[in-house]
Write a structure and sequence with these properties.
Layout (H helix, E strand, L loop, with lengths): L1 H12 L12 E7 L5 E4 L3 H27 L3 H5 L4 E4 L2 E4 H11 L2 H10 L2 H20 L20 H12 L8 H5 L7 H4 L10 H4 L5 E5 L10 E5 L1 E3 L6 E8 L3 E8 L7 E3 L3 E7 L5 E9 L2 E7 L2 E4 L1 E7 L6 E7 L5 E2 L12 E7 L6 H11 L3 H11 L5 E7 L4 E4 L9 H6 L4 H4 L1 H5 L3 E3 L20 E4 L2 E4 L29 H14 L12 H8 L5 H15 L3 E3 L5 E3 L1 H9 L11 H11 L6 E3 L11 E3 L3 H21 L7 H4 L1 E4 L2 E4 L13 E6 L4 E8 L1 E8 L2 E8 L14 H7 L4 E2 L4 H6 L6 E5 L1
Parallel strand pairs: 2-8, 12-21
Antiparallel strand pairs: 1-2, 1-35, 3-4, 5-6, 5-23, 6-32, 7-31, 8-9, 9-10, 10-11, 11-19, 12-13, 12-18, 13-14, 15-16, 17-18, 19-20, 20-22, 24-25, 26-27, 28-29, 30-31, 32-33, 33-34
Length: about 775
């Protein structure tokens, strides 16, 4: 397949290139190996960017073109105002998306920051734009993907598009997550402000960022080869431009890195070179704060700071729609845009308003950060890079190197606000209560002393980071248990909590690691190697079932029927029998897994549920057990009855093998997908939605690019799989191939050296040159 695709591309590029070879400012050589992975070699960053943009367009042209429409605020014009898109991992109506991006993207500031940034990254982006556009220009319309080939919204991309795309990614865990709250803000005298605001409660940050990813790094004390060993297991969307794309970029003697980039992003997001391997997990940091504004009694669009009056900036924004233009007015303060959250009691009235200051707005340092990480030779160097640049937007960094060191670092663009300042600058009681309740922190905007401490962002050296020779791990809880044997001391609440209950994936990971170190997991020895890590991840154990199913079955056995919350009597005997026989794993062959998923979805909401509550002295093993008497027992039976009712409504058999009703759809194929809900403590997390047309649960978010990397004398040794495959184009040979690979729990040994590339089914070399 690789040879066929590249031969076609070579024919398209063939005519007229030879005469421009000498003067061409863009030049790259591209060869594809198994599963369509492009290996791009060039003399400079312009060249590897050129090749990367070109190959991404080959595989995902429509995907990026669609996102360009989004960040330019043109979705309503092309797709209608009421259809939805995904912003900050949340479904948002096109009209709302357009207003937000048109109101909140400062393209002039982004251009200025680019001009001051590293020349290597400017060259990389320039090349990427030229490469993408080269493919678009050279490919006849009838050869373009059916989804977008003849659409008005498909056009050449620009540097400004890339700046907007990067900005959208930077603010996904901050300003982007507050899109609806920003769009709804209007002065109290306007008609818009008098309308009831729907769905404008506190953004659930955990849900918006998907609460996903596992990152483990092991050092020389515990690895079989005394080198570093990394598991990278990000849980990201299966659709849209938060998908990953595999690539290998080489400038001989200068730059050689392989892994994945976020779709449409030049460079490398997660990966490895000959000395280090790294991954990321979404962090617990809050990358914004709110400020409570004291308004001028005579004008709700003016606010006071230290008694001095400031007038809000007013911006009229117009969005084109098929039925004509629509216009709204947005207001911005020195802190940032005004936001409203009526359900949380935070409104814009004649006395008070709220503004959001975003640590990641205009975060241009990220480009330098990832470029330097890709060139690093040790985890110590990675730590130094992220401390110096503060360019990591909203993820932890986990890394291992060939020397046998392992790094965990929660060093991100985070407001420089201490616990003491939060106390000293507490605003109204309602606003101050949001901190402990929802980890949304509000400061007194009427006092300049309550703004973030200079230089604005928390210094990197003051944030959580450790280098160890045993292990570090993170599954989206805070820094506290990066190594469970050595809990870290508390930092500012904005960074994350300590001594609090951990999510079940965190606990599951630590249990697996501890069992391996003790030699109690059924595998040979007590050390870690790549094969053992792959086995541990794909065991697909459901920790919630291990902890709670026995008690649930005891309650279940007490009565063959139960009453749902709505008062309906349901026979639960068959469900109990299926759960009793279930192997408590989320494998394609497992029978009963989906019954537990629906049961636990309801049961975990029961208040005062656990027999043994959380104990900060034993955070890995508490809470545990379920209360099995009285009201709790009745509610547990009701939860199981509710699960049975859901499955009956869906016409899903209780004894269906998991893979028969949990699958990815690729054309007319239904590919069985193992793994399960991360909230159930399944490390190989797969979040799925019921699809009534397909008659099954279709994964939309979860294990995506998975890499297990160690090092030998020759270089990196990396096994990986991209669960949803390289291409989003149904006509591509790379649309489903790795999805089948993942379904079978198989892996691909990534070819890094020239010799290994040649052995991995490499197609012909495509010499790509252009002006």
């Amino acid at each position: 397949m690789a040879k066929k695709l590249l031969t076609t591309a070579a024919l398209v590029l063939g005519a007229g290139l030879a005469s421009s070879v000498v003067a061409a400012p863009y030049e790259a050589q591209i060869v594809r190996t198994q599963f369509g992975i492009p290996h791009i070699t060039a003399k400079n960053y312009r060249g590897i960017g050129y090749g990367q943009g070109y190959t991404f367009a080959q595989d995902n042209l429509c995907l990026l073109a669609d996102k360009v429409v989004t960040v330019n605020g043109e979705r309503a014009k092309h797709f209608g105002p009421d259809a939805t898109t995904v912003i900050a991992f949340t479904d948002i109506k096109n009209l709302e998306s357009d207003f937000f991006f048109r109101a909140n993207t400062d393209i002039a500031a982004l251009r200025a920051a680019r001009a001051k940034g590293p020349a290597d990254y400017r060259d990389l982006v320039d090349g990427y734009v030229a490469g993408f556009n080269r493919f678009l220009a050279d490919t006849p319309k009838d050869k373009l993907p059916a989804e977008c080939g003849d659409k008005a919204w498909l056009r050449p991309i620009t540097i400004d598009d890339m700046l907007r795309l990067n900005e959208e990614r930077m603010i996904q865990a901050s300003g982007g997550a507050w899109l609806r709250q920003t769009n709804a803000a209007a002065p109290p005298t306007t008609a818009a402000a008098l309308k009831p605001a729907a769905s404008l409660g506190l953004p659930n940050m955990a849900e918006m960022i998907g609460l996903g990813s596992n990152g483990w790094a092991f050092g020389r004390e515990v690895t079989a080869n005394q080198s570093g060993l990394l598991l990278g297991n990000p849980h990201f969307p299966w659709e849209g431009t938060n998908r990953f794309y595999q690539t290998h970029l080489t400038i001989p003697g200068k730059f050689d890195v392989m892994g994945v980039t976020i779709a449409g992003g030049p460079g490398m997001s997660i990966g490895f070179n000959k000395d280090v391997a790294w991954t990321h997990t979404v962090s617990t940091d809050r990358h914004f704060t709110l400020f409570e504004l004291a308004l001028d009694p005579a004008d709700p669009t003016a606010y006071l700071v230290d008694g001095k009056r400031h007038v809000m900036d007013r911006k009229n924004v117009t969005v084109e729609t098929p039925t004509g233009p629509q216009t709204r007015t947005f207001y911005t303060t020195s802190y940032g845009p005004v936001v409203v959250m009526p359900q949380a009691g935070l409104t814009w009235n004649t006395k008070t308003a709220y503004a959001l200051r975003d640590a990641n707005r205009g975060n241009s340092n990220s480009s330098e950060t990832w470029l330097r990480i890709a060139r690093a030779k040790s985890v110590g160097e990675i730590r130094q890079v992220i401390e110096q640049t503060l360019g990591i937007p909203w993820v932890n960094t986990i890394a291992a190197d060939r020397h046998g060191d392992a790094l965990y670092a929660d060093i991100t663009a985070t407001p420089n606000v201490s616990a003491q300042k939060l106390k000293d600058c507490a605003p109204s009681a309602a606003a101050a209560a949001l901190g402990p309740m929802a980890r949304v922190y509000v400061l007194d905007g009427a006092r300049s002393a309550c703004n973030w401490d200079a230089p604005g962002l928390m210094p990197g050296a003051a944030m959580p980071a450790i280098v160890r020779t045993d292990y570090v791990a993170n599954s989206n809880d805070s820094y506290w248990l990066a190594n469970a044997k050595a809990p870290m001391a508390a930092f500012s609440p904005l960074v994350g909590p300590a001594a609090t209950p951990q999510n079940l994936r965190t606990r599951s990971g630590i249990v697996e690691i501890d069992s391996r170190l003790a030699g109690e997991d059924g595998l040979e020895g007590k050390t870690f190697d790549a094969q053992k890590i792959k086995t541990m991840l794909f065991w697909n154990r459901n920790l919630a079932a291990d902890l709670y199913l026995d008690d649930a079955l005891m309650v279940c056995a007490a009565s063959p029927t139960a009453t749902t919350a709505a008062g309906k009597t349901v026979d639960i005997k068959a469900a109990c029998e299926v759960l009793a026989k279930w192997n408590r794993r989320m494998d394609n062959e497992s029978v009963g897994a989906h019954v537990f998923v629906e049961f636990w979805r309801l049961a975990q909401k029961i208040p005062n549920l656990y027999a043994t509550p959380f104990d900060p002295a034993d955070p890995v093993h508490t809470p545990r057990g379920l209360k099995t008497d009285g009201e709790t027992a009745a509610k547990l039976r009701a939860a199981l009855a509710g699960a049975v009712e859901v499955l009956e409504t869906q016409k899903t058999p209780l004894d269906a093998p998991y893979g028969s009703i949990h699958f990815a759809i690729r054309g007319d194929q239904k590919i069985p997908i193992h793994g399960g809900e991360g909230g159930d403590g399944v490390l190989n997390a797969q979040q799925a939605r019921w699809n009534p047309q397909a008659g099954g649960y279709v994964p939309n978010h979860g294990s995506s690019y998975i890499q297990v990397v160690t090092f030998d004398d020759k270089g990196p040794v990396a096994d990986a799989v991209l669960s949803y495959s390289q291409s989003s184009d149904p006509a591509s040979p790379y649309f489903a191939d790795q999805t089948w690979l993942y379904s079978k729990k198989a892996w691909h040994r990534l070819p890094f050296s020239k010799a290994d590339i040649a052995k991995d089914g490499a197609g012909p070399v495509l010499a790509l040159k252009g002006k």
